[in-house]
């Protein structure tokens, strides 16, 4: 009876965006385990799931994407159940900007000084930033001469001596 209890769990090896394998023990027999069973143990969201399988047509191991939770997990060429989990970028903003506010009531919450400050920051142009940088560079050049150059200097001075 004790052996029966140990055989009802399955070791699933999985890779998360890198080459180091992780191990989860799923309380389901290896001949009946599904992607949904694995997801009950692995609670992180935002991944695409791939199962390593031996492809007879190619004659080597391939990674097959699994989307349906009822899909049965199969053993790879080495006899293990191996999954490869890749981050899904569907919900990640990669452009470096924040999403626009879609709810109009949120836009109305900026009032008074907050709205003025927001508009000033929003309208600050690259021209303004460039002129500030030019002013700082001019001040730095006026203060430095051949004897006051430090290791953190922005320019190289060639001595005529």
From TrEMBL:
InterPro entries xrefs: DIX, DIX_dom_sf, Dsh/Dvl-rel, Ubiquitin-like_domsf
Keyword Zinc-finger: no
GO terms under cellular component: cytosol
GO MF entries: frizzled binding
Alphabetically ordered keywords of this record: Cytoplasm, Developmental protein, Wnt signaling pathway
Major location (coarse): cytoplasm
Any one biological process term the GO annotation gives: canonical Wnt signaling pathway
SUPFAM superfamilies on file: Ubiquitin-like (SSF54236)
Record-annotated DIX domain positions: 6-88
Protein name (database record): DIX domain-containing protein
Species this chain originates from: Wuchereria bancrofti
């Amino acid at each position: 009876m004790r052996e029966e209890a140990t055989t009802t769990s399955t070791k699933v090896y999985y890779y998360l965006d890198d080459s180091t394998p992780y191990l989860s023990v799923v309380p389901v027999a290896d001949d009946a385990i599904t992607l949904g069973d694995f997801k009950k143990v692995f609670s992180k969201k935002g991944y695409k799931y791939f199962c390593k399988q031996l492809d007879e047509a190619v004659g080597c191991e391939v990674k097959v994407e699994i989307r349906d939770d009822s899909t049965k997990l199969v053993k790879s060429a080495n006899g293990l159940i191996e999954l490869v989990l890749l981050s899904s970028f569907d919900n990640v903003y990669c452009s470096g900007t924040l999403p626009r506010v879609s709810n109009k009531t949120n836009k109305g919450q900026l009032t008074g000084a907050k709205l003025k400050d927001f508009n000033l920051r929003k309208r600050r142009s690259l021209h303004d930033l460039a002129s500030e940088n030019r002013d700082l560079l001019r001040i730095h050049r006026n203060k430095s001469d051949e004897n006051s150059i430090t290791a953190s200097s922005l320019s190289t001075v060639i001595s005529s001596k």
